[in-house]
Fold this sequence. Notes:
Elements (H helix, E strand, L loop, with lengths): L4 E5 L4 H13 L5 E5 L7 H14 L4 E2 L13 H8 L11 H15 L4 E4 L18 E4 L9 H7 L5 H9 L4 H11 L9 H11 L1 H12 L23 H11 L10 E7 L2 E7 L14 H10 L1 H10 L11 H4 L2 H21 L6 H9 L9
Parallel strand pairs: 1-2, 1-4, 2-3, 4-5
Antiparallel strand pairs: 6-7
Helix pairs in contact: 1-2, 1-10, 6-7, 6-9, 7-8, 8-9, 11-12
Amino acid sequence: MTTVKHVLGISGGKDSAALAIYMSQKHRDVEVDYYTCDTGKELTETYELIERLNSVLGKNIIEYKSIDTFESPQGNSFDHFLAIYGGYLPSSTARWCTKKMKLDPFERVIGDYPTISYVGIRGDEDREGYISKKENIQSIFPFRRNIWSEDVMLKALSNSNITQLLGYYEALVDQTKFESVSYFLKQPLSLGFNLKQKLNCLLDIDVKAFNRVIFEFLKTTDYPVGKLESFSLIENNEVIGIAEVFKILEESGVGIPAYYKPIEYKVNIEGEVKTGTYSRSRSGCFFCFFQQKIEWIWLLETHPDLFEKAVEYEKDGYTWSEEPLSEIRLAERVEQIKRDHYLRTQKALLTNRNSSSWQEDIIAAEGDGCASCFI
């Protein structure tokens, strides 16, 4: 069988860190290479997390470099590419930062080698995550009920493969379960019965059986997983959400990254001083353009030096968001942002009294952008 490389990217955030620990503990048979892509603009807490992970994993996290920092006049990846782009700051519509500093170095190091990339998207998230356009790189999502990527599902569950999958199922499950599988599997994909619906029906019947069937199917393709003799992830039926992620981090000794932990702030609401909390919802560069306004205030008040550095990047009409940081840091604007955040938080609590934890606040904030870059 062709040798396959297994890799897992560490962004410095909670999910990729927890996934690295999870794989090292639950799937020891998989020899995973851990890597990170340093932009040179991460929070100190991010670098501290990676150091603790090195110790817990018992192996070094390799850095995939986007440039040779010794040869670049700027001395770090972000400033190097910013100069190349003429001072044009990255944004949600022009994410050159992710491409140049994370995706490009990853795909350059991997080359044409058959590779399985383990991605830390949680079971309580509704997004697909990074899928390489290179055929030799396959993404796997161990924290989700469905560990397979969308491209694999589109291929495997296409109408032309119904008979083939039925054959795999017949050899794996008992008659009663096979009848249930057949009912849904024989229904062709249509506007009334789409891919997601069909997938969920089959997973509801038996997750492990579904995984075994897909594993058998992949052996007939060029996907990296299909080149393996065995794959312990197909026996996986755990669904890991944000609470489990934090539990993994705490119990391992790595701990929760400090920037996720809520910090109290004071704000005046109709003449009465109220106490709210803020934190960061994501890893990544300290000036990440996906930050909410309240996260910029968190940066201003917890890392004022980094906030000022972020301000310095805003020039020639280029800003991190529609509102320049030079205006966001004004005292009256800071108070207004805190007031809006406090009132919005209180309204959310009244709407859903069960969603009062800071972990739920992080999930809500993640929906406003990417939870992290690439990982």
